[in-house]
Write a structure and sequence with these properties.
The protein has helices at 10-13, 20-23, 26-35, 38-48, 56-63, 69-91. It is mainly α. 13% of the residues are buried.
């Protein structure tokens, strides 16, 4: 699925690469997630997991509802942590 940058995208406006989320500390990630809009979280999730169901359109079709911001933050934090573990495994 193609990621479409909407007006006001944190990632685009701040020239913040998606991959940086994996490299920042847990405290920095929590602070970042706290300040992201729902659309920014969905944008990152769609980049990180291209097979996931995160867009409102896909979520409505598959689950009958859209993902809340809080659900998105929870998923984002979990995926970032999993990516860190996978990254460490690859390095070793």
């Amino acid at each position: 699925m193609e990621i479409i940058h909407t007006r006001g995208s944190f990632w685009k406006d701040n020239n913040y690469a998606y991959i940086r989320v994996v490299g920042i500390s847990e405290a920095e990630l929590l602070q970042l997630a706290e300040n992201l809009k729902r659309s920014d979280i969905i944008e990152w999730l769609m980049w990180n997991d291209r097979n996931g169901i995160y867009s409102d359109e896909d979520s409505k079709r598959e689950f009958g509802a859209v993902m809340t911001r809080e659900e998105g933050v929870e998923i984002m934090l979990r995926q970032a942590a999993e990516n860190r573990v996978n990254q460490l495994t690859i390095i070793r």
